[in-house]
């Protein structure tokens, strides 16, 4: 079995006691790469430490998460630029996007921050990893001018409609990230996935969040990407091995690692 977790926050304190065991369990189910999205300036050091400890297995991104956008956003963006200019090998700009679930206080700032980071992705030839919560139309409006550019990336934790999936796929360089939500009883994702080519799907966990069935309610970890794989295999009526291979190849392509 070949699996890739394209979105995992294993550097958070939830894993401070047992990260080696978490990594071992991921390896045991066939996970070959774990991609780690940054949140803000407070998480850079711990994320890089985790990636250094598992170099060649865990890969860091750099970016400013929309829920960390506030009046200090310019200082935070200065730090993102500093990191991009450093000798660090960041594999993507993420996670970035917009989140209007809690409130819309910094809606305008979130749009500015997203657009700025999309520009850096093009400048540094890196993919973007997009976070979207109650903000699809706003994000689409920011991204639309880049439709004919080299922009590529992952629309992470997709829970949208068939129409929204079609709008994402107007961007030829984008893939859609599917995680444990697809296993939830009331999820409409199984119907939506049938309209999306498997070649446009990547798998993720969003650990420690969104744990798939049968472990829902517990801390999520990268090994649980296998539970998402099993559900996706069932939806596409393909073997888990085939889906694992295709989605892994898709992921490596997005991150520019396909050999």
TrEMBL record:
UniProt keyword list: Hydrolase, Metal-binding
Keyword hit for Hydrolase: yes
Example of a GO cellular component annotation carried by this entry: cytosol
Binding site for a divalent metal cation 1: 7, 9, 95, 206
Molecular-function annotations in GO: DNA nuclease activity; hydrolase activity, acting on ester bonds; metal ion binding
Residues annotated for a divalent metal cation 2 binding in this entry: 131, 156
InterPro entries: DNase_TatD-rel_CS (IPR018228), Metal_Hydrolase (IPR032466), TatD-like (IPR001130), TatD/YcfH-like (IPR015991)
Pfam families: TatD_DNase (PF01026)
UniProt-listed SUPFAM superfamilies: Metallo-dependent hydrolases (SSF51556)
Similarity section: Belongs to the metallo-dependent hydrolases superfamily. TatD-type hydrolase family.
Matching PANTHER family: D-AMINOACYL-TRNA DEACYLASE, HYDROLASE TATD
Name of the protein in its database record: TatD family hydrolase
Lineage: Bacteria, Pseudomonadati, Bacteroidota, Bacteroidia, Bacteroidales
């Amino acid at each position: 079995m070949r699996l890739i977790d394209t979105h995992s926050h294993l550097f958070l304190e939830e894993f401070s006691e047992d990260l080696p065991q978490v990594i071992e369990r991921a390896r045991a189910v066939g996970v070959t790469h774990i991609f780690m999205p940054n949140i803000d300036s407070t998480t850079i050091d711990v994320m890089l430490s985790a990636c250094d400890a598992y170099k060649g297995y865990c890969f860091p991104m750099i970016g400013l998460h929309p829920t960390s956008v506030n009046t200090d956003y310019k200082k935070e963006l200065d730090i993102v630029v500093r990191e991009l200019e450093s000798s660090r090998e960041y594999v993507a700009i993420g996670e970035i996007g917009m989140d209007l679930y809690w409130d819309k206080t910094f809606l305008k700032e979130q749009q500015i921050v997203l657009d700025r980071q999309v520009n850096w992705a093009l400048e540094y030839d890196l993919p973007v990893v997009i976070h979207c919560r109650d903000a699809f139309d706003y994000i689409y409006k920011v991204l639309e001018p880049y439709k004919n550019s080299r922009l590529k990336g992952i629309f992470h934790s997709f829970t949208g409609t068939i129409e929204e999936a079609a709008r994402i796929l107007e961007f030829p360089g984008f893939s859609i990230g599917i995680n444990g939500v697809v296993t939830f009883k009331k999820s409409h994702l199984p119907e939506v996935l049938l309209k999306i080519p498997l070649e446009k799907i990547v798998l993720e966990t969003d650990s420690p969040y969104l744990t798939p069935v049968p472990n829902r309610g517990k801390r999520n970890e990268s090994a649980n990407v296998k539970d998402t794989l099993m559900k996706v295999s069932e939806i596409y009526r393909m073997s888990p091995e085939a889906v694992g291979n295709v989605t892994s190849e898709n992921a490596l392509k997005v991150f520019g690692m396909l050999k």
